[in-house]
Amino acid sequence: MFQICDFDKCCGCGACENICPKQCIELQENEHGVKIPFINESMCINCGLCKQVCSQNSTVELREPTACYAARSKDDAQRLDSASGGVGYMLYKEFLQRSDAPVVCGVKFNESSVAVFKATNELDETEKFRGSKYVQAEIGELYTDIANALKTGHSVLLIALPCQVAGCLNFLKVKKIDNQRLYTVDLLCHGVSPQRYLTEQLEDMKNKHDWKSINLLTFRSNRRFRNFHFYVQATTKKGKKDAVCRYFAGDPYFFGFLRGVSLRESCYQCSFATRKRVADLTIGDFIGLGKMPSSTSLEENIPNPSLILCNTKKGEELLKLIGKNIYLYDRPIEEAVEGGSSLQKPFGRSNLRNEFLKLYPINGFIKTMDILTGNLLKKNEIKFGVKAIVKKAVYKLHMEKLVFILTNRSTR
Ligand SMILES: Cc1cc2nc3c(=O)[nH]c(=O)nc-3n(C[C@H](O)[C@H](O)[C@H](O)COP(=O)(O)OP(=O)(O)OC[C@H]3O[C@@H](n4cnc5c(N)ncnc54)[C@H](O)[C@@H]3O)c2cc1C
Known about the structure:
This protein has helices spanning 15-19, 49-53, 76-79, 87-95, 123-126, 142-151, 162-174, 195-209, 252-258, 313-322, 333-339, 353-373, 376-411, and strands at 25-29, 35-39, 67-73, 102-109, 115-120, 155-160, 182-187, 211-218, 229-236, 241-247, 281-285, 306-310, 326-330. It is of the alpha+beta class. It folds into two domains: 67-193 and 262-343, Aspartate Aminotransferase, domain 2 (3-Layer(aba) Sandwich); 195-260 and 351-393, no CATH class. It has an eight-stranded mixed β-sheet with strand order 5-4-6-7-11-12-3-13, sandwiched between helices. Strands 8-9-10 form a three-stranded antiparallel β-sheet. Strands 1-2 form a two-stranded antiparallel ribbon. Helix 4 (87-95) packs across helix 10 (313-322) and helix 6 packs across helix 7.
């Protein structure tokens, strides 16, 4: 069979599917539920564009960041549903104020809880982009849409994983499309799991809980007690509201993702997991903030801060755009690299990985994770449950104490 690149290295960016002039390439699931390009060879004209556009076959320019910041949106209400400091959403909001017909691209869950990229010029739509969907999102015809937007004079902001930004840049280069008006932001990336696993888990939950539809799905947010939780809101077949909230280590999908059991094979050898970046700006979590001395002191204990790396002049332009709406603290790049493993090397394979690959094609996701983890997830859930009860009780106690002090003060 004709192969564009080594299947284990294919990151599923979809550049080959987008560029094919005969539309004979389609990303389809293999036996592990991983989407890789399948080529209808009877339609193929051997033009070679798919090989040319593939970031695994060509070198993509990576740049050393010129500045590093800790950041947090000043809009606390909007930040609640963001993953960390709400910088992604702020970029969309300010970019859409530009006068050159701006279009922004991000990821939302569609009505079937499938993560998909979408291009829009409506601010309301970008609210659905907030928050990290820890799953590989469908690119569809995104690069073609971006190319058409650039050709017709629009400016475009793309926030995506580094391999997807590389896919887009390669696509535009091969198509010889001027990318002056394209602004790119890459996320620090731990890796992605295929959508297939998430869909299997949601189907299983639907059956067990008698759900008719899923209304909300999040992996983390800044809402109290919901950081790094698998959280689903649903409507049952009887029309009642239901919700499930699990600590990441108690949920099969989240556990597989975060522990490196069920990532895409290419993620374990990712060439973008380095301090040098492919996009104009990089955003992520600022892990280890405050551990190194800096010229600017942190005036407050910033909860869940975002990391911003500025990598190009266009990155500086983006920063200027959002500067007035975010708290920004100049930090040493080394501090970000020290804390952010995704800036050092690809995430490691779990010692359960090989077994997972053997078991999945026979048993499917839920049963495989069950066999691999035994009682571990249940134990983690109990451990978390107890911790959460204590945390809530301490919080309640503090609130009651505060109310008591305030009421006593006002009646004095
Ligand atoms: C798969 C994945 C792995 C990540 N791994 C790390 C990591 O190892 N270390 C780290 O520091 N940060 C990682 N991040 C980034 C982190 O989760 C936050 O997205 C980041 O801190 C920005 O938060 P925010 O509050 O500024 O963004 P928000 O305002 O919440 O905006 C989130 C942005 O992420 C985009 N997005 C959401 N899901 C996806 C997806 N599946 N594919 C592509 N884009 C998506 C949205 O379109 C939006 O632009 C990862 C994100 C994803 C999606």
